[in-house]
TrEMBL record:
Gene3D superfamilies: 1.50.10.10. It is an enzyme of class 3 (hydrolase). This is alpha-1,2-Mannosidase. The chain crosses the membrane at residues 7-24. Disulfide bonds join C391-C420. Its EC number is 3.2.1.-. Pathway: Protein modification; protein glycosylation. Ca(2+) binds at T588. InterPro entries: 6hp_glycosidase-like_sf, Glyco_hydro_47, Glycosyl_Hydrolase_47, Seven-hairpin_glycosidases. It comes from the Eukaryota. Pfam families: Glyco_hydro_47 (PF01532). The keyword Plastid does not apply. Coiled coil: none annotated.
Length: 600
C-alpha cells in the first residue's frame, strides 16, 4: 500500500513541477514589475511560491546565531604597493592578457554555439553535456569572468538567460552535490551580483540558498551532502551521512555567509557556523591535532573517524575557507582564524616536505599522512605523494601572511608555490600531473642530489609493477623525470590551483617574476590542451610532444576552466586594482565576493 501511495505522491509532485515549468518557463517565478520594484528597494524580499522556500522543515531551527558584523575590523593590507610600469612592460603585459582573453572568447563562443543553457560543451566534439544537474554550470560559473574581462554585452545576455531560463526549483537528476552546487552556482551568482549590482542575480542566489538550506533539515542540522532532492521534496526523512569528505562539509562558509550579509537573513550563516563550531571543537582532538581526516562522520558528529590526512583532494578547500571567511567578515581572531593557524602549524609539522631535486631546489610539497592510534599512542606515516589540488596552499599562506601578520607564512607560501612551478617545468609537456610521488629529503635544510637514492624511491613507489626490475630501469621504463618517483595520475584536467597561487604571490609581493612564471605555464598549457572549440583535459602530461608523443584529449572542459583558470591568468596580467584583494575575497571556485567592512 505504501508503495502505491509513494508512486501517487511522486506523480503529483512531478505534475506540480511540470506545471510550474510550463507556466513560468524556468524563470525565478517573480513578475518583472516586482523585480523592478525590488531593484529599487534592497531591504526587502517578497513572499513568492518558490518551492523550496515554502517547504516546511521537519527539524526547524528555533533560533539563529546573529551575524558577527559588529566585530568587523580593518585588516592589514594584502596587496603590495606596485611601482609604475614602463611603456614596454605595459605593452607586454597587455599583449599577454589579450591572448588569455582570446582563449576565453574561443571557449565561450563554443559554449554559446553548441551548449547554451547546458552545463558544459565538449571541446573536441562540440557536444553539450549536463554533468551538474542541468542548471547551466558553465554559464553561471563564467558570469563574473565575463564582467572582469569587460565583455559586457555577453554578460548582459548571460544574466538575462540565467534570470529567465534557469530554475532551481527542480533538477534533471534526482540528487545533487551540495558542495558543487554551492561553489559553482551560489558562488557564481553572488559574485555576478557583487560585481555588477544586478539584483536579479541576488534573487536567483537566494533561490539556490533556500534550496540548499533544506539539505540541512536533518536531526543535527548538518547537511545531507549527496542530497536527494526528490526525497526531500516528498518530505521523506533525511539525515547527514555517516561517511563524508571533509571538503564537502567544510567548504560552504563563504557563499552562505555572504548570502546572509546581502539578504539580512541569518539562517544561511547560522547553518555553516554550526559546522564551523563542530570543526573548531574537534580540531585539537583528532589523531593529528590541528588537522581533520579526509573522511568524517557528520551523522554522529565524529570528526576523528578517518585515518587519512591530506591538504589535497577530498580535504583541500576545507583548509582554505577558514582564513577567507575571516577575511570576508573582517576578523583577526576567533574560531575562523584559530582553525587556519592551527591547521597550518600542524601541516608544516606533519605534511610539508622538501623533495630531492637535481638542482637542490629549496621547495616544498604537501604530502599525505596515515595516522593510527595504538597502545603506544599514535603512529604516523608520511607518503611523499602530492598533487595539483594541493597547489592552492601557496596562495592561502600568502594571504595569511598579510591578513594576520604571520611573516613565516610568506616563506612557506613561496616554497610551496615554487614546488608546483617546479612540477610544471619537470614534465616534458611543461604541465604538472594530477597526482605524483616524489623523493622526500631527510633534511629540509640540506638535500644534495643522489641518483641512487632516487632510484631506490622509484623502486619502492612502483613495487606493485616492478616485476623484479631495479629502480634505474623502472625510471627509464616509465620515463620519469629526475626527482619524481611515480606519476600516479598523469592527467591534466585544466585545474587552476597552481596559477591561483602564482597570482596571489604576485599581488602580495609585487614581484614581476611571477608574471613571467605564469606566462611560461600558460604557453605549456595552451600547447598541450588547445582545441578548435576551447581547451581539453588530457590523459598524460608525461607525453613528449617534441618527440611526437601525443597526450590524448578527454573531450572535457569543466566550467572552472572559464570560471577559475582563465580568470586567474587574466588577472595576473591585469592592473592590480582589478579585483583588489584588499576589497575582495576569492572563493575556492575563484568567485570574488566583496569583503564586509564597517559602514557597509
Amino acid at each position: 500500500m505504501w508503495a502505491i501511495r509513494r508512486y501517487i505522491l511522486t506523480g503529483i509532485l512531478l505534475f506540480v513541477f511540470i506545471s510550474l515549468w510550463r507556466n513560468y518557463g524556468t524563470s525565478s517565478l517573480l513578475p518583472s514589475s516586482l523585480l523592478d520594484q525590488l531593484q529599487l528597494d534592497s531591504g526587502s524580499f517578497p513572499k513568492d511560491d518558490f518551492f523550496w522556500r515554502n517547504l516546511e522543515p521537519q527539524f526547524p531551527v528555533t533560533s539563529f546565531r546573529p551575524l558577527p558584523t559588529g566585530t568587523a575590523k580593518t585588516l592589514p593590507p594584502v596587496q603590495a604597493k606596485f611601482e609604475p610600469e614602463s611603456d614596454q612592460d605595459k605593452q607586454l603585459r597587455l599583449s599577454r592578457r589579450g591572448v588569455i582573453k582570446d582563449a576565453f572568447s574561443k571557449a565561450w563562443t563554443s559554449y554559446r554555439k553548441h551548449a547554451w543553457m547546458r552545463d558544459e560543451v565538449g571541446p573536441v566534439s562540440g557536444q553539450p553535456k549536463n554533468s551538474l544537474n542541468g542548471w547551466g554550470a558553465t554559464l553561471v560559473d563564467a558570469l563574473d569572468t565575463l564582467w572582469i574581462m569587460d565583455m559586457k554585452p555577453e554578460f548582459e545576455e548571460a544574466i538575462a538567460a540565467v534570470h529567465k531560463n534557469i530554475s532551481f526549483a527542480f533538477s534533471n537528476t534526482p540528487g545533487i552535490s551540495v558542495f558543487e552546487t554551492t561553489i559553482r552556482y551560489l558562488g557564481g551568482l553572488l559574485a555576478a551580483h557583487d560585481l555588477s549590482g544586478d539584483r536579479r542575480m541576488l534573487l536567483k542566489a537566494r533561490d539556490v540558498g533556500d534550496m540548499l538550506y533544506m539539505s540541512f533539515d536533518t536531526p543535527n542540522h548538518l547537511p545531507s551532502l549527496r542530497w536527494e532532492l526528490k526525497e526531500a521534496a516528498q518530505k521523506q526523512s533525511q539525515s547527514a551521512a555517516q561517511v563524508a569528505l571533509l571538503a564537502e562539509i567544510g567548504s560552504l562558509s563563504l557563499e552562505f555567509t555572504r548570502l546572509s550579509l546581502l539578504t539580512g537573513d541569518p539562517k544561511y550563516h547560522d547553518a555553516v557556523d554550526n559546522i564551523a563550531q563542530l570543526l573548531h571543537r574537534a580540531q585539537m582532538y583528532t589523531k593529528v591535532p590541528g588537522l581533520w581526516p579526509a573522511f568524517i562522520n557528520p551523522a554522529d558528529e565524529d570528526f576523528d573517524s578517518g585515518s587519512f590526512y591530506t591538504l589535497g583532494g577530498m580535504s583541500d578547500s576545507a583548509y582554505e575557507c577558514p582564513l577567507k571567511t575571516a577575511a570576508l567578515l573582517g576578523q583577526d581572531s576567533g574560531k575562523w582564524v584559530e582553525m587556519y593557524l592551527e591547521s597550518m602549524k600542524a601541516s608544516n609539522e606533519y605534511l610539508f616536505f622538501r623533495p630531492m631535486t637535481p638542482e637542490n631546489d629549496d621547495i616544498l610539497f604537501s604530502g599525505v599522512l596515515h595516522a593510527n592510534r595504538n597502545s603506544d599512542g599514535t603512529s604516523v606515516i608520511l607518503v611523499p605523494s602530492s598533487g595539483h589540488l594541493t597547489c592552492f596552499l601557496g596562495g592561502v599562506l600568502a594571504l595569511g601572511s598579510k591578513l594576520l601578520k604571520e611573516e613565516s607564512h610568506l616563506a612557506l607560501a613561496e616554497k610551496i608555490t615554487k614546488g608546483c612551478v617546479w612540477a610544471y617545468s619537470a614534465l616534458p609537456s611543461g604541465v604538472m600531473p594530477e597526482v605524483l610521488e616524489l623523493t622526500r629529503c631527510a633534511d629540509r635544510n640540506n638535500c644534495p642530489w643522489s641518483e641512487s637514492t632516487w632510484h631506490d624511491a622509484v623502486a619502492a613507489a612502483n613495487a606493485d609493477r616492478a616485476e623484479g626490475k631495479p629502480g634505474s630501469e623502472l625510471a627509464q621504463q616509465f620515463k620519469l623525470p629526475k626527482g619524481i618517483s611515480k606519476i600516479n595520475d598523469g592527467r591534466y584536467v585544466l585545474r587552476p590551483e597552481a596559477i591561483e597561487s602564482v597570482f596571489v604571490m604576485y599581488r602580495v609581493t609585487g614581484d614581476k617574476k611571477w608574471q613571467d612564471i605564469a606566462w611560461k605555464m600558460w604557453e605549456s598549457i595552451d600547447a598541450l590542451t588547445s582545441t578548435s572549440r576551447g581547451h581539453s583535459a588530457v590523459t598524460n602530461v608525461n607525453a613528449n610532444h617534441h618527440e611526437g608523443e601525443a597526450a590524448d584529449k578527454i573531450d572535457v572542459m569543466e566550467s572552472y576552466w572559464l570560471g577559475e583558470t582563465l580568470k586567474y591568468f587574466y588577472l595576473i596580467f591585469s592592473e592590480p586594482e582589478l579585483i583588489n584583494l584588499d576589497d575582495w575575497v576569492l572563493t575556492t571556485e575563484a568567485h570574488p565576493l566583496r569583503r564586509f567592512k564597517q559602514g557597509d
